[in-house]
Amino acid sequence: VTPSTSSAASTPSFGASVSGPVHLFDRLHPLLWGIGVSMTVCAFLFVVMYMLIAAWALAYFNLSFTGDFPWSTCRRREDDDSRPNDTCVEGPAAYYFQHNFLRHASGFDGEFHIAWHIWYALILIYVIWYFCVQFGVTYHQRMISFFILFPLSILTFLIIVGLMSPGSAQGIRWVIRVSYHELKDGTAWLAAIQQVMFSLGLGLGGIIVLSGYQPPVGPGQDILVNAAIIVSTNFGASIFAVLGVFAIKGKLAHDKWGYCVSQYPSLEPGCLAFTASIEDYVALNSRGVALVFVSLAEAVTAYDLSFSRTTLSLLLFIMIVFFCLSSVTMAAEVVTLFFRSTPQLGWMDRFADGYLLAVLVPGCLLGVVLCSSFGPMLLDMMDKFGVTFIVIFLALCELLTIHVYGMKNLDRDFKVIHGRRIPIFFKFCLYLITPCCLLIGGLWGSIEMLVNGTMFAYPAWGNYPYWCVLIAVLLVLVTAAWIPLAVLIVCCCNRRRSTALDWGNDDFPFEQRAALQKPQRYMNWERKLFRLDEYDFPENLGKTPSSQGMSKNPTVPSKRGPPTIKEPTRSSYRDDTGQYVPETDVENATDIGTAYDLDSNNYRRPKQSKYSSQYSSQV
Question: Which residues pair with 457 in a beta bridge?
Fold first, then answer.
């Protein structure tokens, strides 16, 4: 937190981080602040999407209190005369979700109407989120812990229930099956990249914002170990959730397969061919929102538990609500920090929690359109053109800024903060491997979607009409056009972005820590590949903390001012007069600091004379 914030209150407010994406990229280079603005716009669209899904789950949570689930049978709405009241082919859960709950239009030329019950649930979700985050970061951390640990405990219970049911093995087997032909599908690689981006919050600026609350690295802390723990925990939680969900779905597929086989030789609606296996039924509705609101909702009705199906349904949908809120909070802080760090928007301080209202009010207004009969189609377009492709592009731009800032500077900063260099493997990942994977995977998946005709198409209705293509182009421009626009503003208009925040030595003594770092020589191939200097800290060759006017404690400045010194030789030290002398006079010299020997690559203290203590006391 900033010094003013930390002194004013012990609990920093929501959005009080000093490391927003706009500010960070502007300090890296004045032409790059557009990357931060694009991240902010993508973060807002991410908030709108996940808030809508949380509203769906909250509405299903409310419907679960009834003894008879409305998605258990096919019931036509009283005000819906467009569909006959016959047996629904897609199944009762899918029929209810599409026609009764979402009130989905029949096509691009369908009737426009709003599902007000979803919009009311959306407003309630925004109000719940508002009261959860307005009490500051400390309360926010506790809220995130609850929003993650409590749903995981519910998920553990659901996994135990699912594993005890018949057909769970077939559901898990379908998930862990090996399909080598999928490796030839570019859309599978694109989906994998998308999963990693969304699960870790990459490309949205959330990691950058949350790093502003991280204290300086101290003894016993390891950034690389922490990163490995975060990635491993995220991967383990994802696998844990997938196995639990598909164990429950396997039970539903087992019951559906048994029912269809028992009706032989007649083929009932919703049944596959009689040669189909249980795994084929598991594959039905196993992607996207249909997995939760169709397959799992239908699976809940199939359970015959001693405590009640209502309890199982309540636990399932409140778990979805909590998971969505925990994901939204990080992205919402990116948006609030943008308003807080822009001086032109300082008038928002006049209102209580004005920065939170800047997320809540536009989200509720935009939710009116997303809660309409065209809402699912617009949500699919927003996910595809406003978030997924743009986030991959922004992550690629974020990695390419390393070439602008320089691996040399990044390596030196890492050593100052962490005490050692970036390992060679991570340098290769940052410099070459990860950008190539993002570029190849994104282009491959996008080209395959264009060839297959799924890029500008909605699966339920077909290809986009011209007005949908215009909306898709508008989403891309709103999110990605800030990058070239920032370059034009800086170059043509000669206008640099003014900011209310700054980084310096208030919270972290960077210059003092840099002066204490021991110079190390790079290997020749490493220096040529990453365009590094011969030494990571060449200006510290032969220098000591005392010679630079600092004490050996990096946080306490020395009372002695910086003296005038000569340029150090390849191996030198200071004598009693404060001047550098050759290494050949080391036996007769004195030094109050530490001599650095370049050839042996270590620090050593030369022989002390009888005048050393007297000189030190005078200093």
Answer: 463
Distance CA 163, CA 300 (A): 14
The backbone region for 325, taken as left when phi is positive above 0, alpha when psi lies in -120 to 50, beta otherwise, is: alpha
User: Residue 231: left if φ>0, alpha if ψ -120 to 50, beta else—which one?
Assistant: alpha
pLDDT exceeds cutoff 60 at 466: yes
Distances (CA, A) of 173 to 247, 300, 321, 473, 564: 9, 21, 28, 41, 73
Return the percent helix, strand and coil in the chain, to nearest 5: 60, 5, 35
336 Cβ contact list (under 8 Å, min separation 6): 14, 15, 355, 356, 358, 359
Tokens linked to 94 = 């899918």
Q: Which amino acid is at 143?
A: M
H helix or E strand, kind and range, residue 195: helix 186-200
69-94 mean pLDDT: 67
CA 317-330-289 angle, to 5 degrees, is 35
Distance of CA 393 to the CA centre of its chain: 14
Q: Say how far apart CA 316 and CA 310 lie, in whole Å.
A: 10
Amino acid residing at 555:
T
Between strands 462-463 and 457-458, the pairing is antiparallel
CA distances from 598 to 306, 413, 517, 539, 594 (A): 76, 22, 14, 13, 13
How many Å separate Cα 236 from the centre of its chain?
17
Beta-carbon contacts of residue 259 (< 8 Å; ≥ 6 apart): 268, 271
**188 has a pLDDT exceeding 80:** yes
DSSP SS3 for 339:
helix
37: its two tokens: 């603005």
User: Rounded to whole angstroms, how far apart are CA atoms 177 and 501?
Assistant: 51
Q: Which residue has the tokens 């004045």?
A: 30
**Residue 514: Cβ-neighbour burial (10 angstroms; 0-12, 13-18, 19+):** middle
The structure tokens listed for 204 are 């949205």
- Residue 193 near residue 392, CB atoms below 8 Å: yes
Tens-digit pLDDT profile for residues 40-51:
999 999 999 999
The model's confidence at residue 431, banded by pLDDT at 50, 70 and 90, is: confident
Structure tokens at 526: 């490493």
Question: Which DSSP symbol is given to 452?
Answer: H
Rounded Cα gap, residues 364 and 79, in angstroms? 26
* 53 — pLDDT class (breaks 50, 70, 90): very high
Residue 260 exposure: Cα atoms within 13 Å on the Cβ side? 21
Query: How confident is the model at residue 610, as a pLDDT?
Result: 41
DSSP 215: P
pLDDT at 548: 45
Q: Tell me the two tokens of residue 50.
A: 């996940």
For the segment 351-403, what is each residue's pLDDT rounded down to a tens digit?
556 677 778 888 888 888 999 888 888 888 888 888 888 999 999 999 998 88
Spatial contact of 21 and 205, defined as CB atoms under 8 Å apart: yes
Find out whether the peptide bond into 265 is cis, omega within 30 degrees of 0: yes
